[in-house]
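Our preliminary data section would be incomplete without showing what the modeling component actually yields. Below, a chain of 211 amino acids is followed by its predicted structure, encoded as tokens that our downstream tools consume directly.
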Amino acid sequence: MSAYVQDTQFLTRRTVVLGAIIALHILIIWVLATGLAQRAIQLVAPPIKTTIVQQTKKTVKPPPPPPPQLQQQQVQVPPPVIQINVPEAAQTHAITIVKKVVRAAPPPAPVRVTPLQMMARDFPSTSSYYPDASRRLGEQGTALVKMCIGAGGRVVGEPQIERSSGSPRLDRAAIRYARATSGHFQPETRNGVPVTVCTALPIKFQLTDSF
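Predicted structure:
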């Protein structure tokens, strides 16, 4: 009895589902037949408008022609032909002797020399430079002092003993005396021009006589 009730319920559900499917198909066919589907589509999606845009073509002017190029024509002028007629030298076998006279150079003009001179009037005395110790000890002697006299009559440089007097004290006194003679000379001249000369001056220390 229960099995029969279940079969009846199953058939009832199946019948309802089948009826719903058939009703759905009928509804779709009716919608298509009456044009409702097309109206629904128009409402949902508005109509597409198409606009034709005409593209304008721009006219591009052609570029101007390039300026004409000027070509410089070079005119070649041939160089002139110059002919120089050189006469041929006469050939000779004679020997030519050329005498060259060598003249002797003229002798140099003589040089006028005025020698170095001492001013005797103002020249210092050796007694003023005689060492007191040498006087007490009786030392005497003559020292030869080398000295240079400039154009102004003054001693140039440092005097030097060229030959000793035999006493170191007298040699030192002779050096001091030579320095003291500076400015007491007339310089040597050559052709009137004063020059510097070096000489050896003997300086004598003697107890009885002065220089």
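The domain at 113-205 is CATH 3.30.2420.10 (TolA/TonB C-terminal domain). The chain has a mean pLDDT of 78. Preliminary results of this kind motivate Aim 1 of the renewal.
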